[in-house]
Amino acid sequence: MSSKTKIVVLHMKEVIYTIIFVVLAILLAVLLFMMFGKDRKADSAATSAAVYHAGVYKSPITLNGNTFDVEVTVDENHINAISLVNLSETTTAMYPLMEPALDALSSQIYASQTTENITYTDENKYTSMLLLDAINEALDKAKVD
């Protein structure tokens, strides 16, 4: 009887390196799945719950015959920018608290992403109320029905 015995010689270094590379490849695959799997779920949830139609929306304000606009820039879920547009030098001189009041309001709106529970000082009370009404009007135009 002739036996055909085959002897396989494995070097222990090669076995250990192979095991290490296989473990690293599995860890990399799991890490990539976790990183990109969550983003897809978060993006789809964000798109389905869109609050605004992305764009730039304006609301006019008229003071003593001078008209200017409050411009609100939004994306689908965030208020990105609030500014005064077409504000003449005459209006700026007649109503010097307009721009500082808008800056104070917009910083609070950016932080909370809403116009509710906004605080303002007594010296800017009426100016702030006027600006908040215009901002709310522009946001109403942007809201998803």
Notes on the structure:
The chain crosses the membrane at residues 15-36. It comes from Blautia hominis. This is FMN-binding protein. Keywords: Membrane, Transmembrane, Transmembrane helix. The protein has a 3-stranded antiparallel sheet with strand order 1-2-3, with helices on one face. The mean pLDDT is 88. By secondary structure, the chain is an alpha+beta fold. The protein has a domain at 55-142: Sufe protein. Chain: A. It is 52% helix and 17% strand. The protein is rod-shaped, with a radius of gyration of 31 Å. It has helices at 12-48, 89-94, 98-112, 125-142; strands at 55-63, 66-74, 79-85. Helix 3 (98-112) packs across helix 4 (125-142).
Task: Please give a handful of descriptors for the protein shown.
single chain, 145 residues, alpha+beta, Sufe protein. Chain: A, three-stranded antiparallel beta sheet, 52% helix, rod-shaped
Question: What is the alpha-carbon Rg in Å?
Answer: 31 Å
Number of E-type strands = 3
Distance between the termini: 87 Å
CATH architecture of the domain at 55-142: Alpha-Beta Complex
**What general outline do the C-alpha atoms trace?**
rod-shaped
Short description:
The chain crosses the membrane at residues 15-36. Keywords: Membrane, Transmembrane, Transmembrane helix. This protein has 145 residues and is an alpha+beta fold.
